[in-house]
UniProtKB/TrEMBL annotation:
InterPro entries: Alkaline_phosphatase_core_sf, DUF1501, TAT_signal. SUPFAM superfamilies: Alkaline phosphatase-like. This is Sulfatase. The lineage of its organism: Bacteria, Pseudomonadati, Planctomycetota, Planctomycetia, Pirellulales.
Length: 479
């Protein structure tokens, strides 16, 4: 067979040779497409439209709700939950290995032994510092994970890793992923609530409860520590009652007509759903946050009658009331750098512990006595821990440590006791390391979700919470 053009006579062999670089990629693309079509697709969670109606997970869940107490700044694991006798034995001696400092200008190589005593509690012999006397009463229900790891020493990046899957801004928070996947049992309250400290927002501010590129319906709703707890929820007096009802009815009619003409615009659907939720919240939110409905005994249990624990106790009690009413995910934050004890740790750490210890333990006890702990995960911890050496010799503190730190979880399918270990100085996780993405995969597993199958298509790419990291469900954490 012979091919001709207007200039040159070519043989079939010449044609194939000259077109090899053009035809090869085309053939390869066809082969890849055929193979992709033949491979089974991952099952997707979620729907084409977006709402907060409850959705059944693919697998039988052990957890249905979660309360996270996020201790922003980095609680010192070696002073609270991971005792290291060698530090006290070598106090003020030179550290024998390499230290990964964050603040080199104030760095020291002198070992700093813990000033506080530890005892073992409960049937698992969990070591607890004298700074956490109330936590010591719930060790039979809590699992201390001593081998947490993000490996990124700055606060912002490690917060994003622990709360968003990667040390990058702009990604959806954990609560957004859970509510995107599962919705909520309540249709009169937000599925995802963030509760802030009266003394200020944590590092990264509103990004801590951002929906990222998920629809705005899955953003955390802020409940403030003071009245009004939710801004702009109630109408002004001159619009209350029948006037507002007529206005909202007209708005619903217009929104419905507008949405019908724009099928597939999911952000529009999410915005309309947010308006409708806000209307229902006018009644439900006030009731859920009204602590006068709780007994005097309950107030005392949470420390609401004591100045040091009043504020955090109120938030913990509201968190329980929200979970009772069908909210899926509640996260409580301490103020900016509250646990970031670069200096004056001997004074600062006890004060931080007094604020949260009694309310946090009360939350676990209260959920348990109401039969809610079995299906509610409670988390306590920050984005990092602290180093075993002195920082700032003039006013002793500890620098950041994200290579081996502690947190605790309770309920929702987690076992009790201790998991993982750091080295003899408390610097690096050396046994059963739990990376942030392993923690997330395990959490989703307890909610009946496979982390790789919870996807959202963004700009043509399937996004997940774990984002391609080698995440694994850690069976040793589970009951």
């Amino acid at each position: 067979m012979t091919f001709y053009d207007s200039q040159t006579r070519s043989t079939r062999r010449h044609f194939l040779a000259s077109s090899m670089m053009r035809g090869g990629p085309l053939a390869l693309a066809c082969m890849i497409a055929q193979r992709a079509a033949a491979e089974p697709k991952k099952p997707k969670m979620g729907t084409l439209g977006y709402d907060l109606k409850p959705k059944a997970p693919p697998h039988t869940p052990r957890a249905t709700a979660m309360i996270s107490m996020f201790m922003q700044g980095g609680p010192s694991q070696i002073d609270l939950l991971d005792p290291k006798p060698l530090l006290n034995k070598m106090h003020l001696q030179k550290f024998p290995g390499k230290i990964k400092y964050d603040n080199a200008a104030q760095a020291s190589s002198k070992i700093f032994g813990s000033p506080w005593k530890f005892k073992k509690y409960g049937e698992h012999g969990t070591d607890v510092s004298e700074l956490l006397p109330h936590f010591s009463t719930i060790t039979d229900d809590a699992l201390v994970i001593r081998s947490m790891h993000t490996g990124v020493n700055n606060h912002g990046q490690s917060i994003h890793a622990m709360n968003g899957g990667r040390p990058l801004k702009g990604r959806p928070a954990l609560g957004s992923w859970l509510t995107y996947a599962l919705g909520a049992e309540s249709q009169s309250l937000p599925a995802y609530i963030a509760m802030t400290d009266p003394q200020g927002l944590p590092v990264e501010g509103v990004l801590n409860w951002s929906n990222g590129w998920l629809p705005s319906l899955f953003q955390g709703t802020v409940i403030r520590p003071v009245e009004p707890r939710i801004l702009n929820l109630q109408p002004p007096p001159h619009l209350d009652g029948e006037i507002q009802e007529n206005y909202l009815a007209m708005l619903a009619s217009l929104n419905k007509r507008h949405a019908q003409r724009r099928a597939g615009e999911h952000e529009l659907q999410a915005r309309i759903a947010n308006y409708e939720l806000a209307e229902r919240m006018q009644f439900a939110a006030d009731e859920a946050t009204d602590l006068s409905r709780e007994s005097k005994t309950m107030h005392e249990m949470y420390g609401i009658n004591e100045p040091e624990t009043k504020e955090f106790g109120e938030r913990c009690l509201i968190a329980r009331r929200l979970i009772e009413r069908g909210v899926r995910f509640v996260q409580l934050f301490t103020k900016n750098q509250y646990w970031d004890h670069h200096g004056a740790i001997a004074k600062g750490l006890p004060a931080s512990c007094r604020k949260i210890d009694k309310p946090a333990a009360a939350l676990v006890k209260d959920l348990k006595q109401r039969g809610l702990l079995d299906t509610t995960i409670v988390h306590w911890g920050g984005e990092m821990g602290r180093l075993p050496v002195i920082q700032n010799e003039a006013n002793i503190g500890r620098d950041h440590n994200t290579d081996g730190f502690s947190m605790w979880v309770a309920g929702g399918g987690f076992r009790a006791g201790i998991y993982g270990a750091t080295d003899e100085f408390g610097h690096h996780a050396v046994s059963n390391t739990v990376n942030h993405f392993d923690y997330h995969a395990t959490l989703l597993h307890l909610f009946g979700i496979d982390a790789e199958h919870l996807t959202y298509e963004q700009n043509g790419r399937e996004q997940t919470l774990i984002d391609g990291q080698p995440a694994k469900v850690i069976e040793g954490l589970l009951a």
